[in-house]
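// run 5 | inverse folding | seed 20
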């Protein structure tokens, strides 16, 4: 079994109104010094009976086709066995 942890975030330079709202709320709650908050997505995908290389290829394709919008989002992923 291989588990992929996929992280998707907006690219630098792309406005993140949700992140700005959270940053402002943190400041209001007394958490001074927070310069920036970026909101993203986190997904866990579990594969049965595939090699690590095959899982990496599949996740890369999934990110490009569905999980991330490469025009405005960056993505990265980690693979775990077990």
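// decoded
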């Amino acid at each position: 079994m291989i588990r992929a942890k996929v992280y998707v975030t907006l690219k630098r330079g792309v406005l993140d109104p949700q992140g700005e709202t959270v940053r402002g709320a943190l400041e209001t709650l007394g958490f001074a010094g927070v310069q920036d908050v970026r909101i993203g997505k986190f997904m866990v995908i579990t594969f049965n009976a595939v090699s690590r290389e095959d899982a990496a290829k599949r996740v890369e394709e999934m990110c490009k086709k569905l999980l991330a919008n490469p025009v405005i989002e960056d993505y990265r992923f980690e693979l775990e066995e077990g």
